[in-house]
Design brief:
This protein is an alpha/beta fold. The protein has 14 helices and 13 strands. Bound molecules: pyridoxal-5'-phosphate. Pyridoxal-5'-phosphate binds at residues 11, 60-62, 65, 86, 138, 142, 171, 173, 199, 201, 210.
């Protein structure tokens, strides 16, 4: 039987043999007591990578983002972020439920917005208004098609936030991809951001785990909320070991995912009826539109699945394909050919 090529997400990867060995051999302790040496090693490593003072290991990117919001706001405050951000679309209403904050959208192409928008959106210091407290940016931007923030535009947004008395959080679930694609070190991308979340369980291929980094006081507060939200773990070193292994062995290969995404997009764009600009593919995520005559994107995904390619529909006429650890260069081209067959029929 033809092997299915699963392009639904980079979260579907399974730990490799080497990673499983590292997990089995991990030294562990009770992390809630601060006694897991492997978790501590990962948190120190994440501080070095991000250039931030302190960090905390958490079960998911969602928890890292929600802790960042909770730790840096008070109920009634306002968070400025892009309307297509993960925080708005896919975190179960967490900002409202867990932090009691309002969101003010800052729209723009492919997940980006500008410092000028932040300056225009900030609310005045008036008892009628919510306090604009936090700006969040997503880099790379998932619903923006894996878009990498231009570094000057990003830093200008951080500067605007600070000038206006706000803090700046980076949802860096895929900061690794942004770094590899732009050639900038993670700490350079973050420059004077106040906090960053990053995932080990996406392109890096660990089974579980994310981290939040910031200044010491913010991470101390985040640890309290991690406990409150039920995200404190015990012998989590087995998971931290997978993340450390991923940093050592899988970071460099992200460039392959980006090359595979470009090759996939180039081939797929040749299918008449597919709406896709391969030049817009910067990292491992490819969004494409389909001819409305083919029916809904959901129905198109079902046809592709029958042809052996799994993907998610992300709107009535748009589909997302994501490259990852288990997709080879040959798989990427084969997937594009199968999709062409399934849709062109
Ligand atoms: C940009 C972004 N942020 C945060 C997350 C949340 O990560 P998790 O699924 O680990 O909660 C995701 C997940 O895909 C994401 O794409």
């Amino acid at each position: 039987m033809t092997q299915t090529i699963d392009l639904r997400s980079d979260t579907i990867t399974k730990p490799t043999e080497g990673m499983r060995r590292a997990m089995a051999q991990a030294e562990v302790g009770d992390d809630m007591f601060g006694e897991d040496p492997t978790v501590r090693r990962l948190e120190e490593r994440f501080c070095e990578i991000t250039g931030m003072e302190a960090s905390v290991f958490v079960p998911s990117g969602t928890m890292a983002n929600q802790l960042a919001i909770r730790a840096q706001t008070e109920p009634g405050d306002e968070v400025i972020t892009h309307p297509e951000s993960h925080i708005i679309h896919y975190e179960s209403g967490g900002p409202a439920a867990l932090s009691g904050v309002m969101i003010q959208p800052a729209p723009g192409l492919r997940g980006l917005f500008t410092a000028e928008q932040v300056r225009a959106l900030v609310r005045s210091d008036d008892a009628h208004c919510a306090v604009s407290r936090l700006v969040t940016v997503e880099n790379t931007h998932n619903r923006g098609g894996g878009k990498v923030w231009p570094i000057d535009q990003l830093h200008a947004v951080f500067d605007a936030a600070h000038d206006l008395g706000m803090r700046a959080h980076v949802d860096g679930a895929r900061i690794w991809n942004a770094s590899v694609a732009s050639g900038e070190r993670v700490r350079a991308i973050l420059a004077n951001a106040d906090s960053v979340s990053a995932c080990f369980s996406k392109g890096l291929g660990a089974p579980v785990g994310s981290a939040l980094a910031s200044d010491g006081a913010t991470i101390k507060r985040a640890r309290r909320f991690r406990k409150m939200f039920g995200g404190s773990m015990r012998q989590a070193g087995v998971l931290a070991a997978a993340a450390l292994y991923a940093l050592d062995h899988h970071l460099g290969r992200l460039a392959e995912d980006h090359a595979n995404a470009r090759a996939f997009a180039g081939r797929l764009a040749e299918t008449p009826g597919v709406v896709l600009d391969p030049a817009g593919v910067e990292t491992n995520i490819v969004y494409f539109g389909i001819d409305p005559a083919w029916g809904t994107a959901a129905a198109a995904c079902e046809r592709c699945a029958r042809e052996g390619v799994r993907m998610f529909d992300t709107g009535p006429g748009t589909i997302r394909a994501v490259m990852h650890l288990h997709v080879s260069a040959a798989d990427a081209l084969e997937a594009a050919a199968r999709i062409g067959r399934a849709l062109g029929r």
